[in-house]
Each structure stands twice: as structure tokens, then as C-alpha cells.
Amino acid sequence: MEPEYPTANDWYKAHRSELKKYRGEWIAYTNKGVISHDRDYRKMKDAIPTDVPNLSYVIGRIYESEFVEPVRFYPVRMRALKAHDWQPRYELHLKAQNSARVEMLVDSGAELSLITKQLGEDLGLSRTAREIISKAEGVGGSIEYLLRDIEMELDGHIFTSPVAWAQTDFCQEVLLGREVVFDLFDIEFKQAEETIIFKRRSQ
What we know:
Blueprint (H helix, E strand, L loop, with lengths): L7 H8 L10 E4 L4 E5 L2 H6 L11 E4 L27 E7 L3 E8 L6 E3 L1 H6 L11 E5 L2 E14 L2 E10 L8 E2 L4 H4 E6 L4 E6 L3
Parallel strand pairs: 5-10, 6-9
Antiparallel strand pairs: 1-2, 1-3, 4-5, 4-8, 7-8, 8-9, 11-12
């Protein structure tokens, strides 16, 4: 029988090597396992069982080295000669009109945090008729976005950060960028241990 882990993150760490079959897909998982998956975010979200409470699962995307995205919001991904599958992702609780637990790729190359159009809609974000869309440039091209202030909770610390809400469906990145976050926390990456340590800076 599959053991029940204390948290969804504990389950993810214990089964990360098995998640390769979901490469290129969005997944939703609890402390017991994957409850929904699909390459299309909306299909994945719609397939989550209705009896599963909203904040009892985490949404994440399993990246695939062969899967080429049309836009990059961060510098460059290059395949190393000696591959290390770990990516520096961290679970946060995002809150606007609605809430969601989301794994975000911690990216020092991104000035702003970034969420997908679909995730923003799930959080209850909306666009006003006269609102002007901004454009961000990346190595792979550009994306259109709207800036929103989103409440984030990271390891029990609650703060508000500006987030770029993508307005293009093909952008499937969820990134934790430098703005606000990197000022509030000292961040240590331990790739050999596949660990990220966030330490809240003194006020």
C-alpha cells in the first residue's frame, strides 16, 4: 500500500524520479500522489476530482528537455553534458480573489514573477476594458502580460509581490522572479542535495 506522506512536497520528493512520464504536462498532486495530469492546463484542472479541497493539492508543471516552448521569460536553458534532472522549484500559496498552491521555478534571471493566463483566471484575475497590455522580451521572443499584485505565502511568511500575468495561451511558465522576493529572503541553492533554502532577512 502506498504510504501517506506528511505533505504533498514530501510525496513529490519521494517520487520525483517517477514523474518523467509526465514530462511536458501539468500535474496536480497531494500527499498521496498525482490526482490529475494533462499537457493542457485547463483539462488538467477540470479533471481534478470535485471532492478534493482546493488547497489540499499542489499544481506544478513537469518540464521536458526535448519540449521546446515558443517563449522564454528567463535567459537560456542549455542541456549539460552531465544531466542533473533537478530543477529549483518551490511550493508557494498564491492568493488573489481565489487561492492556489503552486510550484514555481525559482529564477534569478526573471525580473518579475510570472504566472500563466489560465492560472491567473483560476486566481480570479480579470482584465478591464481599457487596460493596456505590457510586453516582456525574452531570448525566445516576447510575451504580453498584465501586472498584478498577488499575495504570496512562503514557509509561513506572507507578503505581496508584483506578478506578470501572461495574456498569451502558449506561455506555460510559472516563475518566481527577483522583485520583492529576493529582497525579503536570502536564497541558497544546494543542487547536490536538490534543496532550496529561503531565509527571511531581518526587517
